[in-house]
Specification:
The chain has about 650 residues and is of the alpha/beta class. It contains 21 helices and 21 strands. The strands form six sheets. The protein has a five-stranded parallel sheet with strand order 3-2-1-7-19, covered by helices on one side. About 45% of the residues are buried. The structure holds NADP nicotinamide-adenine-dinucleotide phosphate. NADP nicotinamide-adenine-dinucleotide phosphate binds next to helix 10.
Length: about 650
């Protein structure tokens, strides 16, 4: 649907009522599209640059009324007579971007916005000539958010593909994590595919809604016929003679070998639950499980429950456990920074649904505003300032300001409990670890009389509970481990053997690196999604990253096949240079500069997980393939011309 073909279906009164709920800067940009009047971008009413936790000052009533009245007239006219097209030139688009963000951004945002706002979307990949594509088979490992996207892009290219999914359905993390209280912590209007908007019920939807979205995607794009469920890839071995990957899988029919021309690994960074390195886990005689493997047969009602961890998962399930259990003890090693967001659990109102669904360009600008306020715009708070000589508590004046705002939030939510305020106020800079979002729900649950927060380290788990280093014994009926995932073991436990027969695990040695987060020298035609240094701490949606990465992978495969090559292998030099840049940039971000522990770093303290730049920088670097970054191999005489994904002959 083009923006101007949206059909307005409402009475004058309904439109007027909905407009009272419109986000004004988004609405002003909508009006520029619909009226062509650029003078609406009045500098005197431009929003102020973002401050976290700060509420933008309201517009003077006279201005609000004028904008909403103009919007009402424009929408009624559009409803009755259709909308006129007022093309937006690039310079005007930049003005609109600067208007909605409140800052002066550079031209690098223009191509991204043209695509994102559907004004001049980046053209879909055209199908490859079938004579080139038909015999090329891509194995995609994982049917979660990234794997489904990879399948969609392979369909567009016209190559053969098979998705191997270890679970019985699609959805990846949203299939596995079913703990009570599980919901997305990035706003859904950015945590969704750019090409598949949805009328989300909430700003931050729950696990079931997210799972439904990915199931719908699989159905809508006909992906299920290409998915082999309950089939886990155990090893992949590159064959230089045939330029193919020999893949061992275990599925419903047992072990099997298949052959593919290329592999897209879409396994995610957070899908192998990590149990803590504490002695005695198995000794506990009560019920125990990890948050990603929640045992719903275990009732918490009236039970004594121990919760280990205070990260993004524990933070969501703790209040739900607190509602049912008779006694809850939370073992906290490092308190998280938590940003207050009052709409975290809110449903989207009928009026806002209407605006998003019927007003041309409103959804696009609403999403752009989210892109800025929940992602790109936050980066400035995480960047180190060389002249700031702290780095223990904060890394820049902006980061210090953020620290003060967040501390105030903790003090407000935990009012009356100075003991908890002291325990739960982090010592490290905000954005050095994943920042959580709450509306006070979590802190309220910790304030309850039957809840205790213990900062004393756990010494050992035993038959009846656990003992902390001070010697105190805690007895439980249930222990829940919210202890995260083996994140720096990217692609674990698959065994991946490259061109020289060397296993990737050995090459990486728990220090994963890739060129652009996607390719590694000596592992030809092997592409990672959500690979090394493609994660985010504060800025944005991981779906954005996967879309950028898949755009690049499609460019790679197009180049490969259009030029009649069999394989491409990343060169050492760009790989090395890129990773040096990543490391230098990581040290300039709160998560790289701070010494606090985080799953973003490996055992040596190197940031292996995160992207240190802006979203738009990532978008640009993934636009085009530079063939000089790769070695290409001709199909040799030994190559299996139509390798396809056939059972390997033994
Ligand atoms: P996590 O952030 O790694 O948190 C693990 C928690 O367990 C931390 O509090 C950690 O303490 C604690 N812990 C680990 N070993 C311990 C030990 N031996 N003793 C005491 N405490 C111990 O894992 P997560 O909460 O599952 O979240 C992982 C990531 O998943 C998040 O960062 C986020 O990216 C994603 N996630 C997203 C959502 C969402 O969108 N809604 C929800 C959940 C998770 P330390 O902090 O000291 O290490």
């Amino acid at each position: 649907m083009t923006e101007l073909s949206r059909a307005i279906n409402a009475s004058d009164e309904e439109i007027e009522r909905a407009l009272q709920h419109a986000h004004l800067p988004s609405l002003i940009n909508v009006l520029v599209h619909l009226t062509g009047d650029a003078t609406l971008l009045d500098k005197s009413i431009k929003p102020l640059p973002m401050t976290i936790g700060g509420t933008p000052p309201p517009y003077p009533e006279e201005i609000e009324n004028r904008i909403r009245k103009l919007a009402l007239e424009t929408l009624i006219h559009g409803r009755d007579h259709g909308f006129e097209d007022h093309p937006v030139e690039e310079s005007l688009l930049l003005e609109m971007i600067n208007f909605i963000t409140g800052v002066e951004l550079t031209e690098e945002y223009i191509p991204y916005a043209l695509d994102e706002l559907n004004i001049a979307p980046v053209a879909k990949e055209q199908p490859l000539d079938s004579s080139k594509a038909n015999d090329f088979h891509v194995a995609i490992v994982g049917g979660g958010m990234s794997g489904l996207l990879a399948g969609i892009r392979m369909q567009e290219l016209g190559v053969q593909y098979t998705i191997f999914e270890k679970n019985a359905d699609v959805g990846g993390t949203w299939y596995e994590n079913r703990y009570p209280g599980c919901r997305v912590d990035s706003p859904n209007h950015v945590y969704s595919y750019s090409f598949k908007p949805k009328d989300w019920p909430q700003h931050f939807s729950d696990q079931n809604t997210l799972l439904g979205y990915f199931q719908e995607t699989a159905d809508e794009y006909g992906l299920r016929d290409h998915i082999r469920f309950e089939t886990e890839v155990s090893s992949l071995r590159y064959d230089t003679d045939t330029s193919t990957w020999n893949i061992e899988v275990n599925g419903p029919n047992g072990a099997e070998s298949v052959v593919a021309n290329a592999v897209i690994a879409a396994t995610g960074q957070l899908n192998r639950p990590k149990m803590p390195d504490i002695a005695g886990v198995e000794d506990f005689q009560g019920d125990w499980f990890h948050s990603a493997e929640w045992d719903h047969s275990v009732s918490m009602a009236g039970k004594r429950v121990g919760i280990i961890g205070t990260g993004a998962s524990a933070f969501q399930f703790t209040p739900e456990v607190v509602k049912e259990a008779s006694d809850v003890t939370v073992f906290m090693r490092t308190p998280p920074w938590v940003a207050t967001n009052p709409i975290y659990h809110e449903y989207i109102t009928e009026e806002v649904h209407w605006l998003l669904n019927q007003v041309p360009y409103y959804q696009s600008w609403f999403r752009f505003n989210m892109f800025w306020t929940s992602g790109e715009g936050l980066l400035s708070f995480a960047r180190c300032d060389d002249s700031w000589n702290d780095n223990i508590q904060s890394v820049s004046p902006a980061n210090q300001k953020l620290r003060e705002i967040l501390t105030k939030g903790i003090e407000t939510h935990l009012e009356g409990r100075p003991d908890l305020i002291e325990k739960l106020t982090p010592w490290y800079p905000p954005a050095a670890k994943r920042m959580l979002i709450d509306n006070g729900h979590y802190y309220r649950s910790l304030k309850q009389d039957h809840v205790r927060v213990v900062g004393d380290p756990i010494d050992k788990i035993n038959q009846t509970g656990l003992q902390t280093s001070s010697g105190e014994q805690f007895d439980f009926d249930v222990i829940v481990y919210g202890t995260g995932f083996s994140a720096s073991k990217i692609l674990f436990p698959m065994r991946i053997y490259g061109r020289d027969g060397k296993e990737l695990r050995e090459t990486w040695d728990e220090d994963p690196r890739a060129y652009l987060g996607v390719t590694m020298p000596n592992y030809p035609n092997f592409f990672c999604l959500y690979g090394p240094n493609t994660n985010i701490v504060v800025n944005g949606s991981i779906i954005f990253f996967s879309e950028c990465e898949m755009h690049y992978v499609s460019k790679c495969l197009r180049h490969l096949l259009e030029n009649g090559y069999a394989a491409m292998d990343c060169r050492e030099e760009p790989f090395k240079d890129y990773n040096e840049e990543i490391d230098a940039s990581s040290l300039k971000m709160a998560w790289g500069a701070s010494k606090v522990n985080a799953w973003y770093k490996n055992a040596n303290g190197r940031v292996t997980q995160n992207w240190p730049g802006s979203l738009v920088e990532f978008w640009h670097q993934m636009r085009e393939l530079n063939p000089d970054d790769y070695e290409f191999f001709e199909a040799n005489e030994k190559m299996v011309g139509t390798a396809g994904l056939e059972p390997a002959t033994t």
